[in-house]
Amino acid sequence: MALLLAAAGCANFQSLAPGMPEQQVKARVGAPSETWKSPGGGEVWEYPLGPSGRQTYMVALGSDRTVVEVRQVLSEEYFSRIRVGMSREDVRRLLGRPAEIATFPRRNEDIWTWRYLAQATPMLFHVTFDGTSQAVKTTQRLEEIMYMDDSD
User: Fold this and answer.
1) Best CA proximity match to 20, nearest among 53, 57, 60, 72
2) Which of 45, 89, 107, 145 has the smallest number of Cβ neighbours within 10 A?
3) Taking the domains of the chain in order of start, what are their residue ranges?
């Protein structure tokens, strides 16, 4: 059932096409979780799939309120754009809401984590922010290890 729902969610985003009016987008995929203003009067709508989802779609609308572009941003293409010194807002606008945020006061760092798939392998992408400057300090990609609880 979960696989069927996941496939249906992807199909909805794949059915969005350039030139589609915003009302049709909302009818197909619902309201965005976040809306970002773009230069020139457009917007980018954020759609993270699930609290621990491995896909986040960004739907770019032009000033005419029609779709310009639809992109799935939890991918190497977008992770490679993260640079040391970038702001939290820049990272958030590029990748969407992280699945997890961890704060380490003694190290004066926050780590944001996104789950994604790399060739069907569950992965984690971490961005470490300096607590003082609030800017990107490092990034890291790790394979996600699933632990089984055999206490049942």
Assistant:
1) 60
2) 145
3) 19-72, 76-143
Q: Give a three-class secondary structure readout of the chain.
A: CHHHHHHHHHHHHHCCCCCCEHHHHHHHHCCCCEEEECHHHCEEEEEECCCCCCCEEEEEECCCCEEEEEEECCCHHHHCCCCCCCEHHHHHHHHCCCCEEEEEHHHCEEEEEEEEEECCEEEEEEEEEECCCCEEEEEEEEECCCCCCCCC
pLDDT in tens, 2-48: 443 444 444 489 999 999 999 999 999 999 999 999 999 999 999 99
Parallel, antiparallel, or unpaired for β 67-72 and 121-130?
unpaired
User: Looking at domain 19-72, which CATH architecture does it have?
Assistant: 2-Layer Sandwich (3.30)
pLDDT band, residue 109 (cuts 50/70/90): very high
Burial of 129 (0-12, 13-18, 19+ CB in 10 A): buried
